[in-house]
Amino acid sequence: AMEKSYMSMFLLLIAISCVLAKDAGKKDTKETTVKPKLPQTLSRGWGDQLIWTQTYEEALFRAKHSQKPLMIIHHLEDCPHSQALKKVFAEHKDIQKLAEKFILLNLVYETTDKNLAPDGQYVPRVLFIDPSLTVRADITGRYSNRLYAYEPSDISLLYSNMQKALKLLKTEL
């Protein structure tokens, strides 16, 4: 509930500042015609040009019906490890290109599905789910104590794991 009230407060402030700006800028019409492209909030910075699903339920539905694998990134906005991974993920051209072949979801909260936390609820962690809706617990990172964690230096491993998730799909379905 805390976040909600912050959010509505934040929206209220935006609304107030927009109204003030409108009144101030009546003389100059140039500003009103140029609309800046709003960032796609669902990406939360993991790839603004990619299509991200809003909820876990929607992601599962789309994976099943599109026959694409699902990649789920659990992260937190104020976690430095999440931030560091997000930066290299968003800037990695090959990953961003390959990500188009997935249904994508990034979450800043835990779902009630225990299958998404095979070895605990830590962030950042990345899990793959195939279109039969099976969590691919076998696609892991390099840390034995946190199987689905990736550091920025593991970005090429994450890339090859994405390739693996797509390859498994071709051979198994």
Automatic annotation (TrEMBL):
Keywords: Endoplasmic reticulum, Secreted, Signal. GO terms for molecular function: dystroglycan binding. GO terms for cellular component: endoplasmic reticulum; extracellular region. It is found in: Endoplasmic reticulum; Secreted. The keyword Ligase does not apply. InterPro entries: AGR/TXD, Thioredoxin-like_sf. Its main location: endoplasmic reticulum. The gene is Agr2. Residues 1-21 form the signal peptide. Belongs to the AGR family. This is AGR2 protein. The keyword Secreted applies.
